[in-house]
Amino acid sequence: MKLHNFNSGPSVLPQTVMEQASQAILDFNGTGLSILEIGHRTTHFQAVLDEAIASVKQLMDLGDDHDVLFLHGGATTQFMQVPMNLLDDQATAAYHINGIWGKKAATEAALFGKVTIVADSADRQNTYIQKEFSIPEAASYLHITSNNTVEGTQWHQFPETSVPLVADMSSDIFCRPANYNRFAFIYAGAQKNMGAAGVNMVVVRKDVLGKVNRRIPTIMDYQKHIAAGSLMNTPPVFAVYVSMLTLRWIIQEGGLPEMEKRNQAKANLLYQTIDSLPLFTPTVAKEDRSLMNAVFFLNDPALEPVFLDECKKEGMIGVKGYRTVGGIRVSMYNALDQSSVEAICSLMQDFARRKG
Amino acid sequence: MKLHNFNSGPSVLPQTVMEQASQAILDFNGTGLSILEIGHRTTHFQAVLDEAIASVKQLMDLGDDHDVLFLHGGATTQFMQVPMNLLDDQATAAYHINGIWGKKAATEAALFGKVTIVADSADRQNTYIQKEFSIPEAASYLHITSNNTVEGTQWHQFPETSVPLVADMSSDIFCRPANYNRFAFIYAGAQKNMGAAGVNMVVVRKDVLGKVNRRIPTIMDYQKHIAAGSLMNTPPVFAVYVSMLTLRWIIQEGGLPEMEKRNQAKANLLYQTIDSLPLFTPTVAKEDRSLMNAVFFLNDPALEPVFLDECKKEGMIGVKGYRTVGGIRVSMYNALDQSSVEAICSLMQDFARRKG
């Protein structure tokens, strides 16, 4: 049976990436060595890292002011590493919260300096993104979460700010073109649109660094990582390699414009299906619906386990909503084929006919 | 040509681990999904994590006082995470330094509290391990590096201490049996004896935690990782899986007694060869020679590039000494076959006949 992987992350990756990664574990580029046993200070790995960094710069059209790093850990590490590097003890950071991850990011920032919550969509169960808010003029930065994996909302137009703009893009990185040069800092765990779990990508505009007074542990210091060319210590070699392969795939497929086109086609089909079937209820404000994670409910809660069971029988993986939200969540990352969305939409229509 | 992988890390892994890891990327345990695209909160991954943790406990014969964690990052992360969790601002930690890594660990600790260097073998170019030293009675812990990857020394009898004993075992973890319950804290990057780069293993005796006053960022807090069963955030799934496979291999091969037997046989052969050939000079004190990393020199520095070139032609990888030390370094981790050591010893004998 063909499986449809709607996992929210770790999640579906392109088949060609899997095949190349599998092969590289047996023999990496004809070296006779596995990618798992090559040194990280070899020309072999340097070529992998160089291509990964160059691919990010190309896809995001980044200028020379921005550096790209591949670091250990996931976004949760960045929740503390960002304020450790950017927020002084007595300074203030602005956090715009639309869900669980933004809230966690703000909590970690409060360990390092002052935090002003400029918006919090908890007042409507995080089903929308607040567009009206004001940022303290002296704020060291504004932090946003570009896509809310759990709640199914996404920023479709990034806010204009005079203060440096920082974004957690873990769950929608590389899903669409945008003016990424506007951001002072972008971070993303790899395990959704960029590769396998175990590596973090960071894009940083160098001028925001070096301004805090605290002493930063070496492994947490972005400036030292930049100086070391992302090779301060042994990096997560294989995870960087899988990211490089995934980035290469995105470029070969047509880059971010093509990803956006596909993602919009998939999301349109799914949201239209939800909207057309009274059995299903979308909860997210239409204008804030995520291209990546669609969250919706069955009107009759008793039908939810029945629907989940049918999904399972049809080989549809990962459609149960997050534990704090409930309902259904369909994640449609870059590598998810249109045919998988068609499959679940068919099932929804059929289910509605039978149960509606 | 058969390659002999003497890399210092990332380094050689068992062939069966490579084959299983390669296969799991295409289809993990018959799930139809790749190990790279399964959720970390599935029963599939929980079984991997459970086996990895249970294998560590079995191999080290750990009692219930000790917990095992698999965390993001490498030992360099632990250099700061250990003092962040164990060393209060006004308290003192004792560091026993025998080389580059121990020195780096002490430098990071100084960001968090007071550091007393109880021994430093820099006085003899880190070619030995000081056994005579005294530890401040009030020290929060004594930190040692069990094996010095760069310098080629190893503790063969761990020090008796009244204060908690903390060890960086990155480069000799699981190389031999010992009373590991004596340690309050052990950490090791995976990429030598335990798996692929991108994951850290931590063994912690719970009673040493929770004693510092500072507020610890969530992702750095060992107590929170213990409470979350090593699943606080998305772990480096594939790297944990490779560690699990490697630990399974160690157990199947006969556990730590068998690893020690093999490691001693390999090291004995290599050191006997070095000692028997006047062309080569060992630098490390005999009693402190490492089972894992043998460092030695050619008497005539002009012959060094010639020897390295011959190694290369014979498919011997990773034998150039570390940049700050120079000379030759032969790393002989658990997964390195005796035949590889025999091959380089043959070459050394042949080289000595021709050039001696």
Automatic annotation (TrEMBL), chains A, B:
Pyridoxal 5'-phosphate binds at A75, T76, W101, T149, D168, Q191, N233, T234. Keywords: Amino-acid biosynthesis, Aminotransferase, Cytoplasm, Pyridoxal phosphate, Pyridoxine biosynthesis, Serine biosynthesis, Transferase. Residues 5-343 form the Aminotransferase class V domain. It is found in: Cytoplasm. Binds 1 pyridoxal phosphate per subunit. Its cofactor is pyridoxal 5'-phosphate. Pathway: Cofactor biosynthesis; pyridoxine 5'-phosphate biosynthesis; pyridoxine 5'-phosphate from D-erythrose 4-phosphate: step 3/5; Amino-acid biosynthesis; L-serine biosynthesis; L-serine from 3-phospho-D-glycerate: step 2/3. It catalyses: O-phospho-L-serine + 2-oxoglutarate = 3-phosphooxypyruvate + L-glutamate; 4-(phosphooxy)-L-threonine + 2-oxoglutarate = (R)-3-hydroxy-2-oxo-4-phosphooxybutanoate + L-glutamate. One of its GO terms (molecular function) is O-phospho-L-serine:2-oxoglutarate aminotransferase activity. The keyword Cytoplasm applies. GO terms for biological process: L-serine biosynthetic process; pyridoxine biosynthetic process. NCBIfam families: PRK05355.1 (NF003764). Catalyzes the reversible conversion of 3-phosphohydroxypyruvate to phosphoserine and of 3-hydroxy-2-oxo-4-phosphonooxybutanoate to phosphohydroxythreonine. This is Phosphoserine aminotransferase. It comes from Sediminibacterium goheungense. The gene is serC.
